[in-house]
Each structure stands twice: as C-alpha cells, then as structure tokens.
Amino acid sequence: MRNRDYNKELVKRGEMLIDLSLFGSPTTPDTKPKRGRPYTYPKALIFLLLLLKFSLRLPYRQTEGLARKIFSSLGVTIPNFRTLHYRLTKEEINLEDLPQIEKLQDDFVIVLDSTGLKVTNRGEWLRKKHGRRTRKGWIKLHVAFDINSKQVVSVEVTDEKTHDSQKAEELVETARQKAKEKCKRVEKVIADGGYDTHRIFRDMHERGIEACILPRSSARISGNIARDKVIRLIRRSKRVWKEASGYGKRWLVESFFSVFKRWFGEYVSHVKFENIRKEVVFKVWIINLFLNLGT
Questions:
Q1: What is the mean pLDDT of the segment spanning 242-249?
Q2: What pLDDT score does 284 carry?
Q3: Could you give phi then psi for residue 178, rounded to 5 degrees?
Q4: pLDDT given for residue 43 in this prediction
Q5: CA 290, CA 270: separation in Å to the nearest integer?
Q6: How distant, in Å, are the alpha carbons of 205, 224, 251 from that of 221?
Q7: What is the dihedral of CA 261, 267, 271, 272, to 10 degrees?
Q8: How far apart are CA 283 and CA 88, in angstroms?
Q9: What is the overall mean pLDDT for the chain?
C-alpha cells in the first residue's frame, strides 16, 4: 500500500470517531422497553461517547468535557461522567453483528488465541519508588479470529487462572452459530499447543471442523482420530504440515493483539469483573468497527 493511501485511511479513522451516522441519531430515544424510568440518553449516544473515551484513553470526566465542546454546536445534550459510567455497567455489550456475517466466506477459518491484560495500572509508583510488591492480577482475553475478514468473530474474558483450552469450545460454538444463521460454516480451527487436548480434537471432529492444532512434543498415538492424524503428519514433516494446514496464519491474531494493546494500552480501567468484561468486549468491538468499514 502506498503511503498516500495509508495516510488517507488513518485520516478516515479520525473522521469516524465523531461521525454520528455510524451510530444512528444520538437524539433519538431508545425504543427497547426497560423496567422503570426510560433512559434519558439513547444508547447510540452512549456508545459514541464510550468510543471516544476508549479510543483516546480518556478518563470519564475528560470525556464529558471533550464531548460538550465537540457537540455543543449541534444541540446534543451530553450526559455527565457518572451517567456515562452507569450506562456502561447497564448496557448489554457484545460483538452483535460485527463482523458482518455476509463478509465471511462460506467456509471460513478461525484462529484461537488469548492474551493477558493488567487489571489496573495502580501501584506503579509504589513499585518504582519504594520497591513494594503489589498484587495487581490479570485477566485473559480469548478470541476467535477470522483470517480472511481479519476481525474477531467471538470473544471471552476470564480471570488469569482459566486455561486457554477451557474456552476453546465456547469460542468455536459462538462462531459456528453465527455462521449457521447465514448458511456458512467454520471449516478449520487453527491454534497453538495450548489447545492440544483430546476433548478439543474430538469435539472439532464431531462437528465436522478440521482441527489444525499443534500437538505437544511428547504426543503419542492414542486412538483419537483427528489428533492421531495430525501427529502422523507432523512426524513425517512438521514444516510440510504447517505449510499445508495454514498453521502459519496464527501471526494474524498476534497482530490483532498488538494493535489492541498499542491502541488501548495493556490494562483495563474498571475494577468489577463484569465491568471489566464489558470494557474489553467494547474495545474489541471498536477495532472490528474500523476494520468493518475498511480502515
């Protein structure tokens, strides 16, 4: 890609940050019924402000101030920072229709992987100045990444103690159900040795999905049809198996994690786990949104 075209795409990303048409009309009230008093501010406006907050790494108070300056001339009433935080905790945030199922190939391939994120950025001063040890903890972001559209198809957020393999089937099943709605199917699942379990190989085989998972070095033939087949191919030539199966495509999900951390940082700002989950999923949704619009 030429530098001129690349620069235009980056400029377009900045335009989309405040493009009201992406979220519908922020002044139109929500039509979805709820118990109690209806929300004063529509979901479209809340999502727009949250997009500004997370994309620019702003605290809630600065987000309110920036939004008031940007939208004051448009006659849009902006919620205060407390309301914005409250609505994040109450809104149901998921990937929904992003990526658009129509953009997935009829038989698409997904890569499974996970990365760690810091629970909070507090305590850096204590560690640097006084050498105190503080237990901050981590969370794990698990994704199923489509190698063609280069977007996340399904996502899970867990604590640091959850092994990658424990969320594999949920990620694949979510992607599978999305595809099934449009008569598409998950053809292949690519993953590293962290997903090498008999259960995953057996589950993928029963669903008609090819499991391109690297077995551990000590793997032995054990009667698991799908896993044994991969082991035999690797014994003949690991390089040939990787090239034929597309295992090298795993770098695409690593690139996604790199973009995620460079854009949003390596930590989350919320404390309660449910709010952390919503924050992380919303950040993934933002990246999908930009990729879905071709930038």
A1: 93
A2: 93
A3: -60, -45
A4: 84
A5: 24
A6: 16, 8, 28
A7: 40
A8: 12
A9: 84
